Structure formats: C-alpha cells, structure tokens
Amino acid sequence: MKKLLAFLLALIGLYALVAQYFLALDSRVTDVVETTIRFFSYFTILTNILVAIYFAAVVLQGNSRHRLFSSSGALTAITGYITMVGLIYQIALRHLWQPEGQQWVVDELLHTVIPIAVIIYWYFNESTFPIRFQQIAVWLVYPVIYLIVILVRGSLSNFYPYPFMNVAELGLPRVLLNAGCLIVLYILISVLYIWLHSRSRSVAV
User: Fold this and answer.
1) What's the angle, vertex CA 25, arms to CA 150 and CA 82, rounded to 5?
2) Do 157 and 149 meet the contact criterion of CB atoms below 8 Å apart?
3) Is the dihedral of CA 32, 37, 38, 43 positive or negative?
4) Would you say the C-alpha torsion 37, 43, 44, 50 has a positive or negative sign?
5) What is the rounded distance in angstroms from the CA atom of residue 189 to the CA atom of residue 167?
6) What DSSP line would sit under 124-140, residue for residue?
7) Per residue of the chain (205 residues), what is the pLDDT tens digit?
8) 43, 48, 132, 150: which sits with the fewest CB atoms below 10 Å from its CB?
C-alpha cells in the first residue's frame, strides 16, 4: 500500500508539473527562456518537484531508504514544505484568480490534492526514528534560500512570483516582514509535525 500510494503521488505530481509547464508556455507573455525561468521561480513548482522526486525514490528503492532522503525527518521536512504550499494558496492566493478547464485541474492537484495526500502519507509512513526540533534549522535552508533568490532576481527582472513578495508594489520593509511571517509559519508547521510524530511514537511504545 505504501509503495502504491508513493507511485500514485509521483505520477500525479509529474503529470501536474508537466501540464502546468505547457499551460504556462501556451499563455506566455515573454519568450520561452524567460517563461521557463519564471515557471521555476514558484515555490509551488519547486516543492512539487521535490515531492515527486521523493516519492519516485520511494518507488524505485522499495522499502529501503534512499540516500538522498536518508536522514531522519526528511519526510517531515518535505511535508512541511508542501503544507506551506497548500495553506498559502488557500488563504492568500485562491481568491486572486478563477482558473478553468485543465488549468483548474492542474491548479487543484498542485495546491490541494497533493498537499493533502502527502500529509496522509506522512501520518502513516514517517519513520519511527526520533525527530528533533533542532532539525528545523536545517530544514529552513531551502525556503530561506528560495526567498533570497526570488528577491535578488526580482530586483533585476522586476518579476516577483507572488504578490506578497512584490517589492516594487509593497516596498522592501513590507516584503521582508511578509518573508519573516512565512518563515515563522514554516517553523510552527514543523513544530506541530514533530510534536505529532513524538506523540505517535509514544503511543506505539
């Protein structure tokens, strides 16, 4: 069952990512190179790629732990990232547009279906090894680097993937405050998952 769910998640993730890329090309307002760069500028896209790679590794390696994700808590870190994707979209972005047709399907897969499925998978399949709160500092490297990169590139290209990170419209102080809130949100999500994991281990024991 674990391997089947991992296979489905990898397959759905791959489909959604490829479909979203071609939809972006179809509706592009810049050249292909810039459109591709912008496509990979979204935290949603990068995180769903990470999710797809993780579950593809689970399928290919069977029940063994893949070297790339061998550290205890790797699944929890990834679950935290994709939870951020779902929460931010539902709270701050969903009302900004009304996709239709295939775009609606892909949108729901990337922002709703996959996050929920990953959380369910995490609940039943995170390892029994202890996860430390100190690990959150390492997990933060990815979102922090992401925020730095999009701010630097935004200052050069004037393209910001999310409205709450748009320095041109909001100003740098407000954007930095928003970024800080996002970091705090990820920390809180991670703390919650680690706490839930520790409770499940204590019950099992």
Assistant:
1) 50
2) no
3) positive
4) positive
5) 26
6) HHS-SS---GGGHHHHT
7) 788 889 999 999 999 999 999 999 999 999 999 999 999 999 999 999 999 999 999 998 755 454 556 677 999 999 999 999 999 999 999 999 899 999 999 999 999 999 999 999 999 988 778 899 999 999 999 999 999 999 999 999 999 999 999 999 999 999 999 999 999 999 999 999 999 998 876 654 4
8) 132
| Dist. CA 73–CA 132, nearest whole Å | 8
> HSE-up of 72 (CA within 13 Å, CB side)?
12
Q: From CA 79, how far away is CA 58, in angstroms rounded? A: 15
CA 95 to chain centre: 20
